[in-house]
Amino acid sequence: MQTKRTLKELMSSLGIEINDIDIFDEALTHNSWANETGNSKTYQRLEFLGDAILQMKVSEYLFNNFATFNEGSLTKYRSAMVREESLAFVAKNLELGQYIKLGIGEINSKGHEKASMLCDIFESLTAAIYLDQGIEKVNSWLEQTLFKSSNVNYFIEQTHDYKSELQEVIQLENRSELEYKVIDKQTNDYNQTTFKVAIIIDNKTYGTGEGTNKKAAEQAAAKSAISKMKKR
Questions:
Q1: Which end of the chain has the smaller Cβ count within 10 Å, N or C?
Q2: Pick from 159, 183, 206: which residue ends a domain?
Q3: For 146-168, what is the mean pLDDT?
Q4: Burial class (CB within 10 angstroms; exposed 0-12, middle 13-18, buried 19+) of 68
């Protein structure tokens, strides 16, 4: 369990001086903790509000910073930035997982490392900052976290369709056979699965890739294959 002082130190390191400590405690309280302690408040309502705030602020950020993007591109990149994997990525870099109040079962199953929970916490903390500090402080919070240029570039990179690009390369080179083959699948003690996929073109392996699902692994493998083919 984190103390209020520790929570204040976390927020202070991000330039946020807390006024209402209770709302930040609520933003970090999982329902498993609430069920075990009889606490009636969890982060779910704040998560709901935070999701709406992020949709609006990410839309505004993309509109202001990518003037050449059309509506379709803006929508695609907004989805990339607010999806579970992206928000969990930012939360993990901030080490927010260690501050989540969890019940025994979730602690034992490493709940603080789950992407879904890290995403929820980023949303709920965004809402807590808004309610406690106002929209200007939310802007500052996002500029230091979600909107860092390295993060934005990474999220946009994830929207690239390497499978379609590889298919175009295959057609240009008059190759006939392309296969995505799962060559490994590992599930750890916390039921988290990693797939490894190989790209096979005309019976020759051109690249491999890993991901938490087959689609992500195939995209990673396609990117690897394209890189190898361009170097020839």
A1: C
A2: 159
A3: 87
A4: exposed
Residues 6+ apart with CB under 8 A from 67: none
Torsion over CA of 77, 83, 88 and 91, rounded to 10 degrees? Answer: 60
Which residue numbers are catalytic? 51, 123
If asked whether residues 86 and 176 sit together in one domain, one would say: no
Six-digit token pair at 37?
Answer: 């302690």
The answer to the question of residue 226 being in a domain is yes
pTM above 0.85, yes or no: no
Residues paired with residue 152 on neighbouring β-strands, in sequence order: none
Choose the final residue of a domain: 126, 159, 192.
159
Within a 10 A sphere around the Cβ of 103, how many other Cβ atoms? 16
Residue pLDDT, tens place only, 192-224: 788 999 999 888 899 899 988 888 899 889 989
Range of the domain at 95: 7-159
Domain co-membership, 225 together with 142: no
CATH of the domain at 186: 3.30.160.20
